[in-house]
């Protein structure tokens, strides 16, 4: 029997990951379980060690621990090392290896949407682990410019120093026109009640020639990013496709079985 889990704070119990992976395990005939586990901030090291002790085959790492777990891993994939954040762990004996399937899942979703990144300008809202993954993959796909903005300006500058891109003040976003071919929300905020300030900013954005707006959250009611796109006649994509693709990549790393992303999407849609 194979055991997988997702580690995070109290938000881990709202994750769709257990339903997604449990359903796919059953579909492919693997006897296994996937469970959410809440970890207190001061217990990250013993939590990671427990993966070895309990013979857990693989884990996902949720916000806010995507960066904090790294010192407790034995090795990182190349992409995870560059991004400086992980969302997937594979256990091989006592060795824990960290991966970032957020990045490659986002790349797969863009390919599915038919959006070509090369020589385009991206505008990324956010400066956490998900934003790092997005900036990494946009640069990897040879974007002309990647503009990064967020509430924590020091974190934004750190992304620029580590991965590349161009930092912009969040306050300046509503005061000047922005030429961006793609806009990506990599924050956890999509509804006005979560951040009235960011919602107000989105309504004031002066965006020129945008081809696609992406909100990496999904299943949110009253989504101001979607409303922004609708009001400007910009095609919109939520995070469902990215989640399906990154889940597929996780599953392949854990089991060496490649499942079509549609299988993950069907389960996600049934859960929403």
Summarize the structure.
With 272 residues, the chain is α/β, with parallel strands linked by helices.
Can you count the helices? Answer: 10
CATH topology of the largest domain: Rossmann fold
Q: How many β-strand runs?
A: 14
Strand content: 15-25%
- The CATH homologous superfamily of the largest domain is named NAD(P)-binding Rossmann-like Domain
**Main pleated sheet:** 6 strands, mixed
CATH class label of the largest domain: Alpha Beta
Query: Whole-number average pLDDT?
Result: 95
CATH architecture of the largest domain: 3-Layer(aba) Sandwich
What are the segments in which pLDDT stays under 50 over at least 5 consecutive residues?
none
The secondary-structure element order is EHEHEEHEEHEHEHEEEHEEHEHH
Distance between the termini: 28 Å
Question: Which structural class fits the helix and strand makeup?
Answer: alpha/beta
Shape: globular
Radius of gyration: 18 Å
- Can you give the helix content as a percent range? 25-40%
What does the model show?
The protein is about 40% helix and about 20% strand. The protein is an alpha/beta fold and about 270 residues long. It has 2 domains: about 1-100 and about 240-270, 3-Layer(aba) Sandwich (Rossmann fold); about 105-240, 3-Layer(aba) Sandwich (Rossmann fold), CATH 3.40.50.720. The protein has a 6-stranded mixed sheet, sandwiched between helices. The radius of gyration is 18 Å and the shape is globular.
Helix and strand arrangement:
Blueprint lengths: L1 E7 L8 H11 L4 E7 L5 H10 L4 E4 L13 E2 L1 H6 L4 E5 L2 E5 L1 H13 L7 E5 L3 H12 L4 E5 L3 H10 L3 E2 L10 E2 L2 E4 L10 H9 L2 E2 L3 E4 L8 H8 L4 E2 L2 H16 L5 H11 L1
Parallel strand pairs: 1-2, 1-3, 4-6, 7-8, 7-11, 8-9, 10-12, 11-13, 13-14
Antiparallel strand pairs: 3-5, 5-6
Helix pairs in contact: 1-10, 4-5, 4-9, 9-10
